[in-house]
Amino acid sequence: MLTDRIWKALVKSFASQMKSIFTASSSVKEIFTVGYPKLFAMIENLLERISRDTDVKGVPPALSSERKDQMIAGIDIFQTAFLTICPSRLSDLVNSVFPMPSRGTVPSRESILRIVS
To answer: Does residue 117 belong to any structural domain of this protein?
Structure first.
């Protein structure tokens, strides 16, 4: 079908552009990597809106779950990079709340307030 051919071309172009951004520009790569959850949500919302806006009775859906997965797979490169930096970011946060000399002791009131906030 024509729509299948167009979708395949669109997904291929999108994935190619995302890969190109990842390898070409370190600043954009960093923005998309750190902001991956936001990027993922934006792509997911776009696909959901397309599905909702093209839902016509008696017509096959414009986007199947397989097609959505294909589009989301185009940003997998940023997901991998995001998951790579998560442990170090978490460690930095833990180290800022519980400095190394105070480990094993009861946290101060200020430390508990920082954790809660």
So the answer is: no
CB-side neighbour CA atoms (13 Å) of 26 = 0
CA–CA distance, 96 with 1 (Å, rounded to integer): 56
Q: Is residue 28 part of a domain?
A: yes
Q: Using CA atoms, how far apart are residues 57 and 86, in angstroms rounded to an integer?
A: 44
Residue 102 clears pLDDT 60, i.e. is over it: no
Instruction: Report the predicted TM-score, pTM, of the whole model to 2 decimal places.
Output: 0.69
For the chain, what is the domain count?
Answer: 1
Question: What DSSP character marks residue 102?
Answer: G
Give residue-wise pLDDT tens across range 28-53: 888 888 899 999 999 999 999 988 88
